[in-house]
């Protein structure tokens, strides 16, 4: 059983004097190559309260892996000449977006997607439905006053609500529906950002997330309630959405609900350099943009979070960097993809372009270690006996 193997790996990594760590509530691993899925492992509970077992087809909130899927959609709009990675996003937003400490430095999509915009998460990026994101971003404390845009890497979730607002403004479409049109539906994925645009079948199979045995996200009661953060008066009327007014509504930074098998389809799109199952979403020349790191850790140019991030591009992380702690596979091979962590979940989507292989995985109720946890390292490897 995969959880038994993971627990053994976790226990081996733990200090002998500490109590045995909790096994994940659920763990799923899907390996794939360019042609399809090559192996599936799933164990544990999608919903412990009901006793529903996990499967590779059950959608889960995959946390920051969501950012990589947003980047694919942005690049589709770039191909359509509707967006420019290096243009001042203020032009599209219709209002001036600036770090108050550097008022002459424009903020671009390239900077936002690569976490070099100088935005920070010192203000709350989980905004209520009726929030005015412009007023939140006008607060000086939302910004890094010590580093100009383009000069410093600081991983910041708030970059992606801004990206979503730009996408909404240029298309006039609600972000969750736009993501469905640009990425999810063409790949025939029953997936969504938040739950508003997911099918009833997907909502019924939702994976409940846990931390220390307590449900944190996506219980049936939570899904039946407001699919987004309610308005400040507690109401939940999505009709009040206005394009670009609040790009945080559908959680572009981490709110994608997708199965591990669906995530593997995204991985095969990456292995196919923009094409999967005969569907082309990106031209090979555009896909090249996802292969190029825009930031490489060096003294004085950013925060690597103790070696977790050492190379980063357009919402893409790169493994493995000499001298860093960014190799959960432990084999030194170069990979690209993204990790995710939130509400007790750990997730990952990683491809090895040279070998033409990849893996998508997640586990719920994972202990809050820093860096790549022992659970992630066990899932990254092929855990078959």
Structural notes for this entry:
The structure is a single chain. The chain has 385 residues and is of the alpha+beta class. It contains twelve helices and 16 strands. The strands form five sheets. A seven-stranded antiparallel sheet has the order 3-2-1-16-15-14-13, with helices on both faces. Strands 4-8-5 form a three-stranded antiparallel sheet. Strands 6-7 form a two-stranded antiparallel sheet. A hairpin with a 4-residue loop joins β2 and β3. The protein is globular. The model has no long low-confidence stretch (mean pLDDT 94).
**β-sheet strand percentage:** 15-25%
- End-to-end distance, in Å? 10 Å
The count of β-strands is 16
Shape: globular
Low-confidence runs of at least 5 consecutive residues: none
> What's the Cα radius of gyration?
20 Å
Mean pLDDT: 94
For the biggest β-sheet, the strand order reads 3-2-1-16-15-14-13
Tally the helices: 12
The helix-and-strand class reads alpha+beta
Largest sheet: 7 strands, antiparallel
Helix content: 25-40%
Order of helix and strand elements from N to C terminus:
HEEEEHHHHHHEHEEHEHEEHEEEEEEH
Can you describe this structure in just a few lines?
The chain has 385 residues and is an alpha+beta fold. Helices cover 26% and strands 18% of the residues. The chain has helices at residues 2-13, 65-79, 90-93, 109-113, 133-137, 159-171, 175-184, 200-204, 220-224, 260-271, 284-291, 374-380; strands at 26-33, 37-47, 52-53, 60-61, 192-193, 209-211, 214-217, 256-258, 275-276, 279-280, 295-296, 311-312, 317-319, 335-342, 345-352, 357-364.
